[in-house]
Amino acid sequence: MRFQSIAIDGPAGAGKSTLAKRVAGALGFLYVDTGAIYRTLGLFALRSGADPADPAAVAELLPRFSVRMDYGPDGIQHMFLGQEDVTQAIRAPEVSRASSAVSAIPEVRTYLLEMQRELARSHNVVMDGRDIGTVVLPQADVKVFLTASPEARAQRRCAELSARGMPQDYAAVLAEIVERDRRDTTRAAAPLRQAEDALLVDTTHLDLEESFHALLETVKKELEA
Ligand code: DC
Q1: CA–CA separation, 149 and 158 (whole Å)
Q2: So what's the pLDDT on residue 191?
């Protein structure tokens, strides 16, 4: 059986995970948040005392990096580092920074590529990340580049962090987003960019419901084409 795959790429805070998860639910596809894999490695580097930006130190950790994804009955993607469920822990701001640093290391990307491709070979997937349409699944049935202005993304991130009980200053969050965009788009290994055949969905002026419908319509139209 040939499975279908939908690649959703875009910068941090564009609403990718929330929207991709809902689109996956609407289509009955498996939702795969690939950023969570990089986050789990970032957390492992921090806990191991390795500098997440040091390629040699991080490469040395890879053989001991025991990461697993599991989907509970709730359909939520849980991340395990060894035996520990780190689904919440990987959302901390210092882990965001560490994940961005480790994700720029070519050995890391190569190491994690097969795990992501295997999921798409064995399931219908909606996979979100930065390089899904360009590198991980270049043959994806639908490719979407989901974006929004840095200011809109910073506002949303602040609301999300407050809801998780980790309120942050807007200016600091915006600066962090701008810096993360710069790192994610300028790195040599699989930089964030829109695939030539990806459809652009800009949610700057859309609320969550509008964004969801825009994305779902785009995906459905493309699957039927
Ligand atoms: O989407 P996110 O914020 O959870 O991603 C965490 C980091 O991982 C982010 O800095 C970009 C990186 N990432 C990546 O390089 N490639 C992916 N496919 C997914 C995430």
Answers
A1: 14
A2: 85
